[in-house]
């Protein structure tokens, strides 16, 4: 009954937002509970479609895995071929014969969704993009993405490159589970390279409460895609949507679905609560935010991180209480290093300042 009701809500929302029935074949969506992997909502979740730049989630997954295995490091230099430099935009416009650090390549894939960088990564790992695509597909099979075939590292059009909303949800879940520290990079909203600053394509992440990643995608044949993650009251949901007619429409549709699923779990938006309080008391209640500056396996490492941030970046943490908070991620206990009692503006400003110095930081409400 619940899923039938949600299906009706979703279909109605598509009609309201201008989704036409003759295009519905390529439209799909799924929402899963991160902790249990339970499917909370799905429409056409196993319909195969072009992944567009969601492809780069797998490219990044392999980069993170190679770093973990010691085959790459963040300072490794990746050489740029003529083939890579010739890739169509979105791109960094890398010059043939130049090189780019793995660190910059990761940011370029997440934030700029750079196609030339995707090819650079593929060629440096596997010798050619064709061979790297075979590696991507083998990774996909190991992750249970049984309806996915990759043909390139970027998501540029290829009729044989196909996936499903369910498979992208599995990939997103695996990346967050297996690389929790690296996943924090997906919450970055901008990065600078060669004197130019690039801003994220993931506009919903900037406005949705609890959002912390992960990736947008678009080619004409697929429509506008989005893999998305948000955490409210320590509950993470992963949502994937395929086939938006515009980026704005895609974002609105996924927002409706995610809000509905959080509500079904009795997790109410703090934005809604604050609106009610304002209406009843005629006062605006100031929310209290925290910033997380590190997540560690051992408590003493979390304590060391607090001391380091206090000593090196006093402007960001002045007069703020520090705290070590025990959390659970995929059944594992971890320790978060937090500074507390920020306003929303203060919290985001502090994180932005710390990220300029390549320090991990994200905001918690």
How does this model look, in words?
- This protein is an alpha+beta fold.
- It has two domains: 2-264, 3-Layer(aba) Sandwich (Beta-lactamase), CATH 3.40.710.10; 289-364, Alpha-Beta Plaits.
- The chain is built from 14 helices and 13 strands.
- It has helices at 2-16, 55-68, 82-85, 102-112, 115-126, 129-142, 165-178, 180-183, 203-207, 247-264, 270-281, 299-312, 314-317, 344-356; strands at 28-33, 39-43, 77-79, 99-101, 190-193, 196-199, 211-219, 223-232, 235-244, 289-296, 321-329, 332-342, 362-364.
- Strands 2-1-9-8-7 form a five-stranded antiparallel β-sheet, sandwiched between helices.
- The two termini are 33 Å apart.
Describe this structure in a few short sentences:
The chain has 365 residues and is α+β, with helices and mostly antiparallel strands. It is 42% helix and 23% strand.
Key descriptive features of the protein:
4-stranded antiparallel β-sheet; 23% strand; disordered N terminus; Alpha-Beta Plaits; 365 residues; alpha+beta; 2 domains; globular; 5-stranded antiparallel β-sheet; single chain; 42% helix; 13 strands; Beta-lactamase
Calculate Rg over CA atoms: 21 Å
Q: Mean of the pLDDT scores? A: 87
The CATH topology of the largest domain, please?
A: Beta-lactamase
Which band does the percent of strand residues land in?
15-25%
- C-alpha termini separation: 33 Å
Secondary-structure map with pairings?
Elements: H1 2-16, E1 28-33, E2 39-43, H2 55-68, E3 77-79, H3 82-85, E4 99-101, H4 102-112, H5 115-126, H6 129-142, H7 165-178, H8 180-183, E5 190-193, E6 196-199, H9 203-207, E7 211-219, E8 223-232, E9 235-244, H10 247-264, H11 270-281, E10 289-296, H12 299-312, H13 314-317, E11 321-329, E12 332-342, H14 344-356, E13 362-364
Antiparallel strand pairs: 1-2, 1-9, 3-4, 5-6, 7-8, 8-9, 10-12, 10-13, 11-12
């Amino acid at each position: 009954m619940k899923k039938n009701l949600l299906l009706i809500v979703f279909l109605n929302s598509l009609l309201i937002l201008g989704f036409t029935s003759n295009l519905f074949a390529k439209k799909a969506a799924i929402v899963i509970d991160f902790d249990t992997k339970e499917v909370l909502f799905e429409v056409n979740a196993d319909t195969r479609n072009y992944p567009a730049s969601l492809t780069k989630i797998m490219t990044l997954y392999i980069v993170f895995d190679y770093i973990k295995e010691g085959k790459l490091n963040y300072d490794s230099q990746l050489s740029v071929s003529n083939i890579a430099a010739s890739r169509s935009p979105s791109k960094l416009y890398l010059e043939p014969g130049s090189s780019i650090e793995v660190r910059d390549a990761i940011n370029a894939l997440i934030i700029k969704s750079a196609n030339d960088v995707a090819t650079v990564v593929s060629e440096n790992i596997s010798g050619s993009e064709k061979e790297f695509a075979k590696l991507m597909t083998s990774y996909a099979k190991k992750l249970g993405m049984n309806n996915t075939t990759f043909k390139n590292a970027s998501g540029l059009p290829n009729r044989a490159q196909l996936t499903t909303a369910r498979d992208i949800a599995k990939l997103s879940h695996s990346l967050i589970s297996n690389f929790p520290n690296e996943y924090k990079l997906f919450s970055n909203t901008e990065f600078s390279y060669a004197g130019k600053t690039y801003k994220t394509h993931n506009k919903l992440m900037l406005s949705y409460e609890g959002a912390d990643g992960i990736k947008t995608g678009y080619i004409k044949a697929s429509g506008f895609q989005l893999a998305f993650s948000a955490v409210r009251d320590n509950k993470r949901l992963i949502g994937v949507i395929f086939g938006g007619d515009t980026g704005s429409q895609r974002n609105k549709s996924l927002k409706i679905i995610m809000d509905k699923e959080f509500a079904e779990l009795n997790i109410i938006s703090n934005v809604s609560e604050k609106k009610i309080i304002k209406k009843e008391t005629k006062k605006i209640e100031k929310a209290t935010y925290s910033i997380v500056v590190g997540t560690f396996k051992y408590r003493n490492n979390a304590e060391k991180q607090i001391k380091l941030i206090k000593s090196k970046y006093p402007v960001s943490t002045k007069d703020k209480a520090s705290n070590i908070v025990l959390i659970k991620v995929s059944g594992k206990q971890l320790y978060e290093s937090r500074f507390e009692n920020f306003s929303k503006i203060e919290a985001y400003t502090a994180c932005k300042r710390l990220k300029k110095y390549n320090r991990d930081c994200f905001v918690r409400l």
